Amino acid sequence: MAATDKSILKRLYVVAGFMVLFAGAVLFKLVSIQVVDGEKYQAMADTRTERMFTIEPNRGNLYSDDGSLLATSVSKYTIRFDAVTVSNEDFKANVKPLADALAKNFGKTSSHYQQILRKARENKNRYALIVRNLDYSEYMAVKQFPLFNKGAFKGGLIIEQNTKREHPLGKIAERSVGYERVDENGYYTRVGMEGAFGQYLRGISGKRLKQKIAKGQWKPIGNDNIIEPKDGYDVYSTIDINIQDIAHHALLGQLEKYQADHGTVIVMEVKTGEVKAISNLGQTADGKYYERLNYAIGESHEPGSTFKLVNFVAALEDNVIDTSSVIDTEKGAWKLYKHTIKDTKRGGHGKITMSTAFEVSSNVAFAKMIHEGYKNDPEKYVNRLMSMGIHKELGLPVLGEGKPVLRYPGDKGWSGLSLAQMAYGYEVSITPLQTLAFYNAIANDGEMVKPRLLKEVKEWNKTIEKFDKKVLNPAICSQTTVKKVQQILKNVVEKEHGTGHGMYSKNFSMAGKTGTTQTNYVSRDRSKYEYISSFAGYFPADDPKYSCIVVIHKPDKSVGYYGADVSGPVFKSVAQKVYATSPLTSEVDVKDVLIAKNEDSHQGYYKVAQQKYSSMPNVKGMCGMDAVAILENLGIEVEVKGNGKVKNQSISKGTDLRSVKKIVLELI
């Protein structure tokens, strides 16, 4: 019996010893957690319940040259309610007045909002949605509502802000305005001016501390940010929204008429290189057009006959020919090796001067001129083109500029036909803006300026950085050559035999060159070839202010495909309307520039400036800018809703103008 008792007692001592040791271990661990690793575990707890969030700054505004908005950040606010932090006394006293204020401002009944608030209180909801998508003025009003005016803790007010980028012009110049986006891995996608000037627009992020609450939701702690975000700078571009609107609708109308695949228009100020309009429209599967890609800057292609100007300048500079040199067009066909070069006119033009050859756009004459003039020294020809900068990119801030292709003798693809082919715009590749830069240089008496989209960066009214004209080449050729080709470009439009004579107007002058390029060489069946139609030039022809290029790809051949027919009318329309809305020379009487072809439908061109109406005209179907120009010149205040063409006008046609002070135009 005694032995048994001793055994039991020994076991009790062992158990008691283990319990003491276990208690000691627990006590040691508690002390260790509290004293030794306390800060570590506290930090772990904090990371699970509190987290620092990034606050995106308001992106700066993007403006046109006259201060009109092209892109802006619009802040939207969501209001939520923390029903736990509010005292019973404050909740009971303010729940109905708060619901009444919400109902008065946001359209639903007071009982609706009372139900939301009381249910949140009952369920101890710390993140109850009250109202979302408020603008700034609505948000400021909510902060003054009963209960919410007590702030984040006593009033339970939770404010969430998000920013949306909006384009006031809608789809007009959408690709040129562009965007800047960043993915979850921090990689940026930059398009157009928004992407090019993101360094100025994007601002600096702030920091906000938030606490994790029920259901994985995060609630801001306190009223203030840890680090306040710094908004981006405002950027002023060179775009003129009036000219942009004119270019967009002129191009759109022609694309629709010819059911073309895509097209672009660029308008540039001659002296400064400021791009005043840049429109890029591509066709969707259902036949509609929208700003799909930046063809003006990014699409390098064979330019066709617009490249003849480059070759004419080169040949004049190298004394290969003169404007009066006579060349035989060989009845419109010239065989070089096994390849036959043809003119569009059957039978050719006979023996003509080189100035006439340019005006009628003879492929044979130019192929002969360049091949015969440089066949013994083809390097001299390419070096001349390089001296004018044809092989260089313009170095634009907008990403995606297409690379020019200019082969050198000995390069892959160079052959005995290369000189002749390059003479009329094949075996060379260049973007529309690069082509325009050359034509602009001729208009600018030989000085090539860099096309420019940015004028100024500002913070409120303070200028941060200003961007001035940049000269790429002070003289691409001699003044003698400049004056000769300026006259010939003018002749293309003014002389009856010129390929651009269909654009001629006695009321204002233009100068330029047509271009028609064959494409889609995959098929040997010439009936399956597609075409690129172009017109490049400037206006007025004397002392020019603007240069312009129009390029339209793959028009319906059954309707037409020559540059003079497809792209020329767009150039003329842009020139006419820019003249009408902004007189360029003292010699031009604006009221005589444009006469409407059809007053009821306004197809063609609109009446302008000082011409007086006795009654309200019909402006339905016109583009918005045109309608506004007419009506404001009549002394009428115009309110515009929407973008595009006029769908409805609030004052009907025929109304006595003496009784009209204001009109509302609805655009689509």
UniProtKB/TrEMBL annotation:
Gene3D superfamilies the UniProt entry points to: 3.30.450.330, DD-peptidase/beta-lactamase superfamily, Penicillin-binding protein 2a (Domain 2)
Coiled-coil ranges (or none): none
A GO cellular-component term linked to this record: plasma membrane
Localization of this protein: Membrane
Keywords: Carboxypeptidase, Cell cycle, Cell division, Hydrolase, Membrane, Protease, Transmembrane, Transmembrane helix
One BP term from GO: cell division
Protein name, UniProt field: Cell division protein FtsI (Penicillin-binding protein 3)
Organism: Maribacter spongiicola
